[in-house]
Amino acid sequence: MHSSFLQSRSLSEPSAAEQTPTGARNSLFAYQPIAPAIRGANPFHGTRPITLEARDGAAAGIEVVAGPGARVETLSDEATGCCAYLWGMAGHPDVARADLLRWCVGVANSADLSPLRHVVGTFVVLIDDRRTRRVRMFSDHIGLRPWFVGTREGRLVCGSDVWDIQDAGLNAGGVNYDAVASWVRYGYDCTGQSLLADYPQMGYGAVATWENGSYHEIEYAPFVGGDLRPSREDYVAGIHERMVRTFDALTGHLDQVNIALSGGYDSRYLAALACQRKHLRVEAFSVRDREAEGAAASMVAEGLGLDLQILRTDGSLWNMFAEPYHFTAGGFPMTKQLSELVALQRPGVPCLNGFVGDPILRGTLDRVEGKLEGETREELAVVFQRAQRMKHTHVRMDLLDPSTVNHCDERTLAVWRKHLARWQHTGRPFFGPTVFVRQRHFLSNNFLQHLDVAEGILPFTAWEIIQYKLQHDPACCGWETYEALFRAYFPQIAHVPHNSKMGARNDLNPKPSSATKAWAAATLRALCRSGCVPVLNRRKSIPRLIGALSGRRDVEVVAQFAYRLVMLDRRMAKSGLAFDWNAI
Questions:
Q1: How many CB atoms lie within 10 A of CB 98?
Q2: Can you name the residues that pair with 24 across neighbouring β-strands?
Q3: Alpha helices in 192-263 (DSSP H)
Q4: How many helices (H) and strands (E) does the chain have?
């Protein structure tokens, strides 16, 4: 247990650490060279070759390159002739960390792939079987580690960022308009693919095989549903047992971790687990954007005897970031989240993250519009699609051509039907797509945004924890579930309320951000070009952008919404990627 220490500093302006990039690019790419004569001519700028040389002299099936900040474990297995690469954070409750990659290769090449579901973390494994000239790959069972797979001139190309693939000249295809439609409407890509039509993201819970010019995927981590309804104490005990096993598999080889300690339940649970591990040095940071966040985090830190630094904002949403927008690995602009500020405090130190904790213990994703599937009378896809649309306070669909909005809905409804059908057998078609589509491609930004700075540790995402949740009746989950867990295992913090239960102290009333005026100015300049985002109504948008530029609070959202469209338009033009907004 750590002694309690509270420190505070201001985030009214970006820290020096953020003004100067602190993390080298954490990326990975693999490709089959077009011809042996040009082997070594790496098309990915700023990466280093890490392709293994086989001891038997067998030619490499793929060339592998990594960004300067990537940590990649490698294995050359003489017995099988396989060269393997593991990128990311991975662990196994029963396999030693030093043996994990060899174990993964053995299972991936076997007839039974199911043991892979017990590998925890966020990772991608590449297996170059040079004797059979077969390439296999698999990622974590939610597919959180970005990995996009396609071909160029009949040869395999895959990697962690689609814009790098495009800029390397390896994309001959066009734009995935379904993905663009989803991003316009919801703020993320619900197709589970990417911006590039020819480079979809590898499926979740899948082992992929490339052989003789053919690519296919096999699911290795299926889920089944159930309606078990034990006592709340027994349900909590089952969750805690699995969390401890997963937590130790992910952190057993580490000596220090960071945590963004919010006023919610997920982060305090992980902080409590971390403080019980004597080998871990734990540092906690709380970004105080509202009074309740800092108050709850301070009470938890005091109860755990945990070092805590309060990072105070200036009251705005965006001034703590040098640039609030960035591009996701799938190709779309997205705003940053507060967890990046915590990662920047100690670059290189992995960050604990409570991703999907609330859906597991409080059941926050079991219902859509307040109803379970069986209580919903409309078509599930129609209800689900409606629930994904962002509110008027975050986007301004009224500024777009109405036909564009309608086409977005037509495109994405078919996508939602497909996702819901895949999870129908579990009896939880709402839960599955929300976690494995929305969470995977939207809220994962919470930790993927700082991948170049520090890795994220996500214990709640383990297959056995999600499977355990799906086997039980939704009635097992709720506020009382978390409260019972703290009473049973961490009574020293059981009295600390959730920040959302602190009344007016939890209200967020941000003051204007300097970014808003910058976005408005940049968008106004861009709209002077007739070809820039033609689906954006100039007559409606320009007066509102001028209002945002002059400091009007009621139209700040216009600057934020329009600027992200302009960002994508500019990036397309810069890369030479042909795109027609009217084709949506």
A1: 9
A2: none
A3: 232-251
A4: 18, 19
C-alpha–C-alpha distance, residues 139 and 208, integer Å: 9
Nearest to 2 by CA among 345, 309, 302, 270: 302
Asked if residues 544 and 558 have their Cβ atoms less than 8 Å apart, the reply is: yes
- C-alpha to C-alpha distance for 271 and 300, rounded to whole angstroms: 9
Q: What gap in Å lies between CA 463 and CA 341, rounded to an integer? A: 29
Residue environment code for 249-283, b if the CB has 16+ CB neighbours within 10 A, otherwise e: bbbeebeebbbbbbbbbbbbbbbbbbbeeeebebb
Grouping H, G, I as helix, E, B as strand and the rest as coil, residue 455 is coil
* Global pTM exceeds 0.85: yes
Other C-beta atoms within 10 Å of 503: how many? 9
> What is the spatial distance between Cα 173 and Cα 192, in angstroms, rounded to a whole number?
17
End-to-end CA distance of the chain: 55
Which CATH code for domain 28-66+71-219?
3.60.20.10
Assess contact for 173 and 152: CB atoms under 8 A: no
With cut-offs at 50, 70 and 90, classify the pLDDT of residue 7.
Answer: low
Q: Residue 576, Cα to own-chain centre: how many angstroms?
A: 27
Chain segment 332-367, per-residue pLDDT in tens: 999 999 999 999 999 999 999 999 999 999 999 999
For residue 328, what are its two tokens?
A: 């996701």
pLDDT at 393: 82
Tokens encoding 432: 């599955």
Strands 333-335, 325-327: pairing is antiparallel
- Give the containing element (helix H, strand E) for 515: helix 514-527
8 pLDDT tier (thresholds 50, 70, 90): low
Listed residue (188, 181, 175) closest to 571, CA to CA? 175
- pLDDT tens string 218-277: 999 999 999 999 999 999 999 999 999 999 999 999 999 999 999 999 999 999 999 999
SS (H, E, C) 29-84: EEECCCCHHHCCCCCCCCCEECCCCCCCCCCCCCEEEECCCCCEEEEEECCCCEEE
What CA–CA distance (Å, rounded) separates 482 from 477?
Answer: 8
Domain-by-domain residue ranges, the chain? 28-66+71-219, 514-583
